[in-house]
Design a protein that fits this description.
198 residues; alpha+beta; elongated
Length: 198
Amino acid sequence: MITFAELTETMLSESGGCPEMVLERQLRNTAIEFLAETEIWQDRRVISSIPQVGEYALTVSSDESIHKLTYCAVDGTELLQTVPHRTFAKYGVPQWYFLRDDTLHVHPFELIKGDIEVELILTCNRLSEGIPDSVGNRWGEALQKGALARTLSMATTPWYDPRTAQLYFSQYGEMAARARREGTRGTHSRIRTTRFSW
């Protein structure tokens, strides 16, 4: 893991005298936004299904948050994402899924069997001390640019510098757009092969 403290240290000379604690908070906020928007932190998991059980808790550490669930397949068949309040078939093979409160719901589930494969988009949160090496090594500079843009945009502070902030915002925007393209390419693009049982 690359910590926010480590990334903050190399930004101090460009922060116009902003306190380190404030700069680190801006860095964390930027990371939360960046990871949610770009979807580059992807976590694929395989869960063993349990007969006649349709709810599976997706646990993450206290400094991680599930942003969304982008893919779910049961026994090799991709399911269709739906909304929590729709009416589901009472019996049959799994066809639908949705995520609520970090819990995967699969419907119908009476005939569920085999492994459940999911792909999650993760982000950090207010408790996070850093970001994974894979993200930090590739996109740490983007996070620093975004954090400096936020910091230098803080009006009524001694370090307020809107001109430099605008430059950092522009650089951050370009990097975020590139990361977004890479994040999109990393998600599943499989042909849906859901089996329907009416």
